């Protein structure tokens, strides 16, 4: 793509000019935006960049390993992998089931852990963020006007100003589809570039009720099977987001000669252009039956599967 290769070269030059000989720190979320920003900045200034991946234990199956492998082995970018699962889970177990309390706890811990890592590196002059054009527009048009907070938002771009670092935001002029083109231009694997969006608070908001490691492990398995079936059916790229939700409800079932009493798993899939509105995806019933059968047979702890047919509005995409 000619225009993206020109953009890439121009941005590289701009980043060098802005940063000089300074040190840059970049938080990776496992998502496309922060990954593209990091690779672009590394291309411009090499090892003046350090990436920090705060692994909160709320990622999907195998996802944390993928991030580490991609950055360390494939790109050779200095990466600090902070294994903070125990910290996050022990704090989350204390907060109970309230969705906002869960979100706020995750946001607070994320900042604490990131801060501590930045200090260990000896501080940095710049903080890199994968802010996109729509984020810039949204924060401008929302300021001043009356606003209702549906959910407190958290992502790696939400680090506080008190961190006193200047920002490097090489994606500020781009839309999501352009970031994907740039990602391909930079050689990021297709599986990474085409990934569905994933929320900062991760699986915690797909596990209504109290969070436990056991529930998260059950959810991860069901989610992986569901996504596998979606890929096999060739539907991954026509869907905006698809995921499993583990409900805090147990129901009775029968398996062989035994009565079971296990969790309900809800499946969600939506189409959307920007995440602001969304339609539930009208799967073929055979597809849903297949996914449900596999989940119940292969995941211990789930004995019933339901499909969410709510669009946004009135529903939100995530359950919390
Ligand atoms: P909702 O559930 O509000 O989600 O309809 C709209 C889009 O935003 C994502 N989402 C988040 N992304 N941090 C993020 O980075 C968050 O706290 C967060 N909450 C929701 C959601 O996955 C969907 O794409």
From TrEMBL:
Keywords: ATP-binding, Glutamine amidotransferase, GMP biosynthesis, Ligase, Nucleotide-binding, Purine biosynthesis
Domain of life: Bacteria
E.C. number: 6.3.5.2
Pathway: Purine metabolism; GMP biosynthesis; GMP from XMP (L-Gln route): step 1/1
Residues of the GMPS ATP-PPase domain: 2-195
Cellular component GO terms held in the UniProt record: cytosol
UniProt catalytic activity: XMP + L-glutamine + ATP + H2O = GMP + L-glutamate + AMP + diphosphate + 2 H(+)
GO MF annotation list: ATP binding; GMP synthase activity
Residues where ATP binds: 29-35
Keyword Cell division: no
Keyword Acetylation (UniProt): no
Function recorded in the entry: Catalyzes the synthesis of GMP from XMP.
Subunit-structure text: Homodimer.
Annotated protein name in UniProt: GMP synthase [glutamine-hydrolyzing]
Stretch of the intact protein here: 203 to 522 of 522
């Amino acid at each position: 793509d000619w225009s993206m290769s020109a953009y890439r070269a121009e941005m590289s030059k701009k980043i060098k000019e802005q940063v000089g000989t300074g040190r840059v720190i970049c938080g990776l979320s496992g998502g496309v935006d922060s990954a593209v920003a990091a690779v672009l900045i590394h291309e411009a200034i090499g090892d003046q960049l350090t990436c920090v991946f705060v692994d909160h234990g709320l990622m999907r199956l195998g996802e944390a390993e993928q991030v580490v492998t991609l950055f360390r082995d494939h790109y050779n970018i200095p990466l600090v992998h902070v294994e903070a699962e125990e910290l996050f889970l022990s704090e989350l177990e204390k907060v109970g089931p309230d969705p906002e309390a869960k979100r706020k706890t995750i946001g607070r811990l994320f900042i604490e852990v990131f801060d501590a890592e930045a200090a260990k590196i000896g501080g940095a002059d710049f903080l890199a963020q994968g802010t996109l054009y729509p984020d810039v527009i949204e924060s401008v048009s929302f300021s001043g006007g009356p606003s209702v907070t549906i959910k407190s938002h958290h992502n790696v771009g939400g680090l506080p100003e008190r961190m006193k670092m200047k920002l490097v935001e090489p994606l500020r002029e781009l839309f999501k589809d352009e970031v994907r083109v740039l990602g391909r231009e930079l050689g990021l694997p297709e599986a990474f570039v085409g990934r569905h969006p994933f929320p900062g608070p991760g699986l915690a908001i797909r596990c209504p009720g109290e969070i436990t490691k056991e529930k998260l492990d059950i959810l991860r398995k069901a989610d992986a099977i569901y996504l596998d079936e979606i890929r096999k059916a060739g539907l991954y790229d026509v869907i905006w987001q698809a995921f499993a939700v583990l409900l805090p409800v147990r129901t009775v079932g029968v398996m062989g000669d035994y009565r079971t009493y296990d969790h309900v798993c809800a499946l969600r899939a939506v189409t959307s252009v920007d995440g602001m509105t969304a339609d539930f995806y009208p799967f073929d019933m055979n597809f849903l039956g297949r996914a449900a059968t596999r989940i119940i047979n292969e995941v211990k702890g789930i004995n019933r599967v339901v499909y969410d047919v709510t669009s946004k509005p009135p529903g939100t995409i995530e359950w919390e």
